[in-house]
Model the fold of this input.
Amino acid sequence: MDRIHIRDLALRCILGVDDRERRERQDVLLQITLHADLGRACASDRFEDTVDYRAVKKRVVRLVEASQFRLVEALAEAVARTCLEDPRVVAADVTVEKPGALRFARTVAVQVVRRRDDR
Done:
């Protein structure tokens, strides 16, 4: 299966279980891989034959910036489901990093892999 990678998508949202975490938006970093058959687009060189990754990114940005999840896991799940709204995307690998979540660690990350048939 072919892949489209969206790397280092830096966003801000409410995320966490502590009152302190829920007062202000925090930085999150997303790594997204969209699995799709890109053969037709490769052969035709036509935009209509590929995944509109700009549109996917816009939907993800809207979702994340409006979200108020408690768990990184729930945010990653919601992002993956949003990616699967595009009918050409058959699977999505989503990693959400929460920098500074643990003392002495640069980041904490959760990765989920979701397939269209999991829906």
Observations:
- The radius of gyration is 15 Å.
